[in-house]
Amino acid sequence: MQTPTAAMLVIGDEILSGRTRDSNMHHLAGALTNHGISLREARMISDDHEIIKTHVQALSATYTHVFTSGGIGPTHDDITADAVADAMGAAIAVRDDARAILQAHYDARGMELNAARLRMARIPEGAHLIENPISAAPGFTIGNVHVMAGVPRIFEAMLAGLLPTLAGGAQMLSQSLRVARGEGDIAGPLGDLATAHPEVSIGSYPFEENGAHGSNVVVRSTDGPAIDAVISELARLFPRIDG
Amino acid sequence: MQTPTAAMLVIGDEILSGRTRDSNMHHLAGALTNHGISLREARMISDDHEIIKTHVQALSATYTHVFTSGGIGPTHDDITADAVADAMGAAIAVRDDARAILQAHYDARGMELNAARLRMARIPEGAHLIENPISAAPGFTIGNVHVMAGVPRIFEAMLAGLLPTLAGGAQMLSQSLRVARGEGDIAGPLGDLATAHPEVSIGSYPFEENGAHGSNVVVRSTDGPAIDAVISELARLFPRIDG
Fold first, then answer.
1. Which residues in chain B have Cβ-Cβ distances shorter than 8 Å to A190?
2. pLDDT in tens, A139-185
């Protein structure tokens, strides 16, 4: 089967102002790679209804899946659910199943399910809930858009529940070789190797260690033996650093 | 004057595969906020000529500035300079000024300026060079697009040289107050405060400390006294946590 594709939408002014450093994109990238879904792009955008709507529609039309993080809490700046509903042409209101989850959570803690907290039960018509094992307030899937929390441990817990329900394609495999040569020294033969082996993708990432230049060469493919063959050729071409 | 706007393009398959965690976007976000340039969005995309070209054109047409990171090294997968030149309708070739910089750098180290390294002197016609005080190979500005390296300390050094040459607008200021109440408890009055004070933007970020829920309320504006006034109201409304 074709490898499913994905995009991520990180929503929040605090990311763009530099106040908060996003970690959900990097977490999602690794999890999708392991699951056989190809993350093609990520966008970080502000808490603005029309902006969210525009990007959700563009990405939803282009990729198999769209994953969002941020903006589903109880405060006035949490507008993601309404904007995604609008983007997908769905009505949105407090839904009984989500309200029941929140009611049970706050009852158990002797806390009030007030109007602000009840906003977190606003779920688009036709959406499936995504479980939140940390703080109860659910995410949701509508169409091919998966809406999750911004707080990293809640995002990660939601994703851990969601991902096994999504079909994965052939898993992207990779091997790397640390080479005791700077990129400028290996670039020529590396380019020839890449041309000769279009069945793999070869990336090169420079590093410096004890004042010496080295390159980490990464070979990626869904075809394990093809990777092995290219790694063997690399090991013949360049002196290797272990570790 | 109007506050200039910006977008960032983080270029590299290694970011999307989860192999590498980008740090340039967070660094740029903080630096632009301090400089009075408003970062409106960031996109992370793969090393693909047509994809880079499409996004550069879209962002360049929308924002005052576009900053890119990644893909300007000597290897076959470093295709950013050519893709940006194509996007901006400029010819690209090895340029004498960039070649002279590289020649001096490698001569001083007894290293050869071979064909691969010479690729880093490919600069679009009409572009201005951006100095690279770390490893010599320059970035460049063409039109409103600033093309810089992906290696974080090189990106940061290039930006440090570039940013003082760009006009900044009114600087976005912020103050925050740590409140000893969860978001669900403060959301109602906070929403009212936000409605009453459209001259500031109020964000709220939950945290947990010693098992208790708190909220970090951040007030942003270019108007310092307006922030002071709202922070005073917040301090009257909610119990504060110091530190």
1. 75-76
2. 999 999 999 999 999 999 999 999 999 999 888 899 999 999 999 99
Whether the CB-CB separation of B224 and B5 falls below 8 Å is answered with no
Superfamily of domain B5-165 in CATH is: MoaB/Mog-like domain (3.40.980.10)
Where does A173-237 sit in CATH, by number? Answer: 3.30.70
Residue that the structure tokens 């930006």 belong to: B159
Answer yes or no: do A76 and B194 touch at CB < 8 A.
yes
Residue A188: φ, ψ to 5°: -60, -65
Cα nearest neighbour of B47 on chain A = A203
Instruction: Tell me which of A26-30, A137-141, A211-215, B113-117 is least confident.
Output: A211-215
A13 touches chain B (CB under 8 A): yes
Q: Pick the residue from chain A with its C-alpha nearest to B38.
A: A17
Residues of A in contact with B205 (CB under 8 A): 14, 20
What is the spatial distance between Cα B118 and Cα A216, in angstroms, rounded to a whole number?
Answer: 21
Domains in chain B: boundaries: 5-165, 173-237
SS (H, E, C) B88-127: CCCCEEECHHHHHHHHHHHHHCCCCCCHHHHHHHEEECCC
What chain B residue is nearest to A204 in terms of C-alpha separation?
A: B75
Q: Which candidate, A120, A133, A135, A141, places its Cα nearest to that of A160?
A: A133
Residues 6+ apart with CB under 8 A from B233: B193
CA B114 to mean position of chain CA atoms: 32
Instruction: List, in sequence order, every residue forming a beta bridge with B52; answer none if it has no partner.
Output: none
